[in-house]
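Subject: sequence -> structure tokens, single chain

Hey, anyone have a minute? Need the predicted structure for the following. Not urgent.
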Amino acid sequence: MKSGNIITAIDIGTTKICVIIAIVNEENKLEVKGIGTTKAEGLLNGIVVDITKASKSISDAIVESETMAGLKAKNLYVGIAGSHIKSQNTIGRISLTSGTEPRDITQEHVEDVITNSKNNVKIQQGNERLEIIHAIPQYYTIDEQDGILNPVNMSGFNLSAHVHIVMADINALRNITRCIEIAGYKVQDIFLEPIASSNAVLNEVEKELGSIIIDIGGGTTDIAVFFKDSIRFSTVLAVGGTNITQDLAIGLHTSPQNAENLKINQGNSLSSQVPEDKIIEIEGIGGREPKKRKLRYVTEIIEARMREIFEGSYKILNEQYDLKMITAGLTLTGGASLLKNSEVLAEEIFNMSTKIGYPDLANLSGPTERLENPKYATSVGILYYTYNELSNKETKIQSIKLGNPFMNFLKKIKEIFKDYI
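Reply:
Had a minute. Here:
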């Protein structure tokens, strides 16, 4: 990518909006220039419910990042989640030739077979109001040869692509895009959050050997499975950290703000790890007298909801995927993953090695200290994902322009001798 190019990553969550402005420096690496975060308003489980409030929240976060960066936000790439997201695996197929000789596979053939996979999904009943936001190749098949990762320049009669398709409700997408347009900006592309997050919290070995990522946000829990360096499954649960806060507010008869503070400062995903006799004071609502409660009771409320999230995730994954294939283990990320003992509870339920996924900042320069937190995994991942996609696109364009040197040589030879053949 060209030095000086600006990439703006926006993570639109139910509880927070996070914006990072980065530039491609002279060393062709990403340099963070500005960071902005605001409380999200007008959003519920990833869906816009008040476009005016949502737009202002997004605008405030962008302006904060611009002020810090001293730059105007450009090339906006947005991460989304929500219960309206639908994912599935499908297969695209094309014939390379109708003759008796195999044909060399080009990048255009690869694009055609992926387009075929998209069309196969679009015509399915129930997908009429969904828009495809990702069509990610898992592997290819040439005739009877399976498991091919890059078919370009290979030869064959038929090409198939095993593709992971992610779709979102067209109205939900348009409302998100409209919010950003009202704020005075234009969206370049939209990504599913766990796909973006994986670029920040999983390394290549984990993606190759088999990993699960569970991103527990404010309003949703995003799940993705990676194996052989490609995504194999993804889904979104409409439950997250906000539900824990609501449970505490109702169960303790306190304000949502106080419930949130209790969750962050004294929360625990395993109530058995809390002394049974420890008493804390719970603030009353609207000036009412505070009450004393056992901390164990507070953590029991938290544990119940965290168990629901992990057990629900496990049930879906166990039904949809062979968990024995997961060698590298489970990674938890997102703000709610920071609840004490969340990884211990998840490891108990999944019976596999579990870690908290902090974003890898090694490939970023600039003021990155603030980003050393799982709640920034999506926004950091969007930067990496976008940078890699744009770099790969430039490489493909250059490859098409320059062509294969050997093939160009053969073409020249043919041109020289064409009159003698």
